[in-house]
Design goal:
three-stranded antiparallel beta sheet; Arc Repressor Mutant, subunit A; mainly alpha; transcription regulation; about 55% helix; Tscrpt_reg_HTH_GntR
């Protein structure tokens, strides 16, 4: 199975699924134009709620990684592999910043100071 989630992981299931799809993009297992299974099918494969899978897919759509087309399904957007790699780094940065007690606003301030 290409995507994985674990009930033992402290991250919410939708974030785990979104991260798993991002990793597949970065690793080259998914490429622009590839079809992603519908939320209901993903939910059945991963033994999670369909709304959880849909939330992950919508988050990725909002990030510009996936496109939803009526009658054509869900596909990886052109350029998503580069965008996915950067998005994965951002997720890791936010996690590390959280661990160190920094907020998103703190990070934005640091970035603006570092690269005006």
């Amino acid at each position: 199975m290409l995507f994985r989630v674990s009930s033992q992981d402290p991250l919410p299931l939708h974030e785990q699924l979104a991260g798993s799809i991002r990793r597949a993009l970065v690793d080259g297992k998914l490429k622009p134009g590839d079809r992603i299974p519908p939320a209901k099918e993903l939910a059945e494969q991963l033994d999670i709620n369909a709304n959880t899978a849909l939330r992950a897919l919508r988050d990725l759509r909002d990030e510009g990684l996936l496109e939803f087309r009526r009658g054509r399904g869900i596909r990886v957007c052109p350029g998503a592999e580069v965008h996915g790699e950067l998005q994965q780094l951002i997720v890791e940065l936010l996690g590390e910043a959280n661990r160190l007690g920094y907020t998103r606003a703190d990070l934005i301030t640091l970035i603006e100071r570092t690269h005006p």
